[in-house]
Sequence to fold (474 residues):
Amino acid sequence: MLMSCRRVLVLVALLLASSPLLASTTASATAEHFGLAGTWVGWATVAVFLIAYTLVVFEEKLHLPKSKPVLLGAGTIWLLIAGYLTAAGGFPEDAAKHAFEAVFLEFTQLFFFLIVAMTFVSAMTERNVFESLRAELVSRGLSYRALFWLTGVISFFLSAVLDNLTTALIMSAVILACAAGNTRFVTLAFINLVIAANAGGAWCAFGDITTLMVWQAHRVEFFEFFRIFVPSVVNFLVPAAIMYFAVPLGTPPSARDDADLKPGAIGVCVLFGVTIAITVTGKQVLHMPTVFGMMFGLALLGAYAFQIKRRETKSNVDSAFNIFQIIAKAEWDTLLFFFGVLMCVGGLKAVGILALASDHVYTVWGHTWANVAMGTLSAVVDNIPIMYAVLQMNPPMDHGQWLLITLTAGVGGSMLSVGSAAGVALMGASKGHYTFMGHLRWSWAIALGYALSILTHLWWNATYFTNGIGHAGP
Fold:
């Protein structure tokens, strides 16, 4: 509850900090926005967004799915914009339409990309791929400290191709199965898991929604993300090495947990790899949008699923593999939440709020400090609206700075348990073993890793900062 209030207060503070700018803005439109920040509609859009995001923050308390308030907020914001432009006159009659379509088309590519990714993950889950991994680790009889490192390293690399939430949930099952009720081990292993999953998702375009958005916006190319692999490793290893000495000694009781792969499991995994290869090749070589490769992969999975279903139907399997049932298992609340957030932020851009924020933050503070601050803010505000807001602000940054904001937005949420989807999910999955306060006790170590990863990036990728590290504005 305390952190929910804190999220809202931080968001309010940031908006109030730019209020002098809002008040002095004229209604003259530019090529990128309508210049309405100083009008009542500008203030109204900010108020609607704040209310919608506040309801998202209190999702668990209100039992209100997070997609509903942002969908309503997005509709209200664009209704206000369209109504104002129509009533005010002086704007093309289809101005609001074109602005809305521009944001909507950006989301459609992201939507279908995520649908395919979620379908592959659901298919691998249904074929017992992740259950088999869990069973294998449980049966190894590893020590607590070995499990601490192994689950962290696996999470770091697994989250590069899966999202941090899926990775966290998969590996948390391993930790809980091996922990034998050892609360101290579960707490430290879960903190390590959150850090590893977030850090691993930062150095690959497929690892996080934020990296995917940066890639699709052509700010960073696919192979350039690998330049932040080393800073991501630093972000993971520094707090892990510190926490390692607090991990209890000894070995949990050995356990036997059999979970066999279902027929076609390996084929689904191979097709996922092929889909990634087609997507990257299609974008880098053929200059096709990323959604082309993902939808091609979905077609291949559909054909393969048909063959699996035929074999299982002939074998009288109770629940034969059905690709449409797999697609239906996608997290629709999450997908619609993304739509609502992106349309809300797109509305803030249309009225001119983001242009003012960009001038106030990126021009005054400088690109490096602004990107560090944005990443720190992601510990209390979701990194998706933060990254999308930066993309919509579109400050004139070089590749080094775009890689920096990708890194900070990806790993900044690790500093608090509520700073990422992985941390929030694990608080629910841990059954009281992993808590906000338990994570907070190690936030200093995580913040140290965050700072050192930034310094590592500034040194390791110095040649990418063509405008200079302290550059501010154009």
